[in-house]
Design a protein that fits this description.
Rossmann fold, 43% helix, binds NADP nicotinamide-adenine-dinucleotide phosphate, alpha/beta, two-stranded antiparallel ribbon, 9 strands
């Protein structure tokens, strides 16, 4: 289906998981895609794959925590493809642990990527999106609605981008720019193998059972559909929809449920602590 022929999409965090799957989906639908992430080898390989399949793709190494990177990346994408119609602020990771065991720097590190990274992405691309009447998609999480013990840095960061998306939607509507909030539940990716410092442990155990995880390609198809239709919000996964419903209507019951879900993630040099898996 070539619904996006002639359109240009920029995706942060395109080297893995949801971002890589979304880039493939946009390319499949005919869009040119700017692939942003820190791991240049990964995005270059993905650009080569998409180009070999007849698409147009450009790998742009970029760190969303670095001031100026998003401006440079946006300029490079526009120089290559001439415009920007869709921007997905997707790059993120999870800091887990109990408040008593964490330092303020753990929270700062989390916010620098998951919150300020989103703000940098929105800020750098706003002029181009205003010019094209485009769509900004912000990837939040079900964790933005429920804050499980052991997940406060991540849940806070996702609640913050949810609030940002709602306010920004009203601010950008007069310019013709749509803001789509994407709220995933558990999706197949590397996120639960990345530690509190953002380091990937490829051999680490995935704590969420396979039956509960949606394949990234399936999530990407749904997310791309919501972006094309300029929906206000898409909650991805059935369990995610139930969790958001419970958070809205029976928050006490949901808190009781999630307090019982305890898993651990790898942290080099430290004993794994109880913490909720990033969703
Ligand atoms: N998978 C889930 O179950 C789930 C559920 C809810 C929400 N989410 C959200 O979905 C988004 C994508 O996560 P994912 O699950 O696909 O995880 P993932 O497979 O670990 O991918 C994360 C992506 O973010 C990029 N990234 C991280 N820090 C970055 C930085 N400083 N600058 C640039 N890129 C950076 C990574 O690229 P580099 O390391 O190459 O830079 C990678 O491409 C995140 O915002 C996450 O919170 C995921």
């Amino acid at each position: 289906m070539a619904r996006l022929t002639g359109k240009v999409a920029l995706v942060t965090g395109a080297s893995s998981g949801i971002g890589a799957a979304l880039a493939r989906e946009f390319a499949r639908q005919g869009a040119a895609v700017a692939l942003l992430a820190r791991r240049a080898d990964r995005i270059e390989a993905l650009a080569a794959e998409l180009t070999a399949a007849g698409g147009r793709a450009l790998a742009i190494p970029c760190d969303v925590t670095s001031d100026g990177d998003l401006e440079r990346a946006t300029a490079a994408a526009v120089a290559e493809f001439g415009r920007l119609d869709i921007v997905v602020a997707n790059a993120g990771f999870g800091v887990a642990g109990r408040f008593a065991d964490l330092a303020l720097d753990d929270y700062r590190r989390q916010f620098e990527t998951n919150v300020f990274g989103v703000l940098r992405t929105a800020s750098a691309t706003l002029a181009e999106l205003s010019r094209t009447g485009g769509t900004l998609a912000i990837v939040g999480s079900v964790a933005g609605y429920l804050s499980a013990p052991g997940s406060s840095p991540y849940a806070m960061s996702k609640a913050a981008v949810r609030a940002f998306a709602v306010a920004l939607r009203g601010e950008l509507a007069p310019r013709g720019v749509a803001v789509v909030l994407v709220t995933p539940g558990f999706v197949d990716s590397e996120i639960r193998r990345v530690d509190n410092r953002g380091v990937l442990h490829p051999g680490a155990r995935e704590p969420v059972p396979a039956w509960l995880r949606m394949p990234a390609a399936t999530a990407a198809r749904k997310i791309a559909g919501a972006i094309v239709r300029r929906r206000r919000e898409l909650v991805v996964t059935a369990h995610g929809k139930v969790a958001v419903l419970l958070a809205r209507h029976t928050p006490g019951f949901l808190a009781w449920l999630v307090a019982r879900a305890r898993v651990s993630r790898p942290e080099p040099g430290r004993t794994p602590r109880p913490g909720a898996p990033p969703t």
